[in-house]
What we know:
Layout: H1 2-21, H2 27-42, E1 48-50, E2 55-62, E3 65-79, E4 82-93, E5 96-106
Amino acid sequence: MKTPIRSLVLAASCACAGAALAAPPCADEAVSRAKKLLVFHFGEDDRIRVGSEVKELPPLRNPANKAQQFRVLEVWGSIYKGNYRMRLIYHVAGKDCTLMGQEILEYASL
């Protein structure tokens, strides 16, 4: 009796792990936009690096239409010794990703 239950639990945990590894919608777009955001703020620089990991954060409500939600994607980047957290806010309709907002914050202890 315990063996089938263990198998079921193992299968469920593998399915959850696979779902967690899937990239969120607009992830490639977010990485591309993050690099453009760093270039916009600091100019073209060979030391600009943007991570490939995209983290989906809780959605935001559209302030103009409370029935709509925006997806928030977090990407990290760096220039030389500076690290930057960027959050890109998208409206997703099917496969279309419309950038609605963006923020950049230097990760530093002052």
